[in-house]
Design a protein that fits this description.
four-stranded antiparallel beta sheet, 38% helix
């Protein structure tokens, strides 16, 4: 399944959630097997659960973390001050990153 098909499916799943939809689509694009079926992709996408963390109020950076149901890796997205919704992960880790839990 190519990224256009993935994005179209997730647009149907979350039509009014642009940030979640974009980040989940990127996780699926990077981690789903090439032969994934529509049903498998949708089931996996529904399992993606984002954790949110904001930095100090003075810089307004925001971070989202989610584990892929396909490759079990952890994807961290960042939206820096006034940058809008993130598109690409800034980190991909095999284990839950400690940096996300640090203050």
């Amino acid at each position: 399944m190519d990224k256009t098909e993935i994005r179209a499916l997730l647009n149907e799943l979350w039509p009014s959630l642009p940030g979640r939809k974009g980040m989940a689509a990127k996780i699926c694009e990077l981690s789903a097997p090439p032969d994934v079926t529509k049903d498998e992709l949708l089931a996996g996408a529904k399992k993606i659960d984002f954790e949110h963390k904001a930095s100090t109020p003075s810089d307004d950076d925001e971070y989202w973390l989610a584990q892929s149901p396909f490759d079990q890796k952890w994807y961290t997205f960042a939206s820096l001050f006034c940058a809008g919704w993130p598109i690409d992960p800034v980190y991909i880790d095999n284990n839950r990153p400690e940096r996300f839990d640090a203050d």
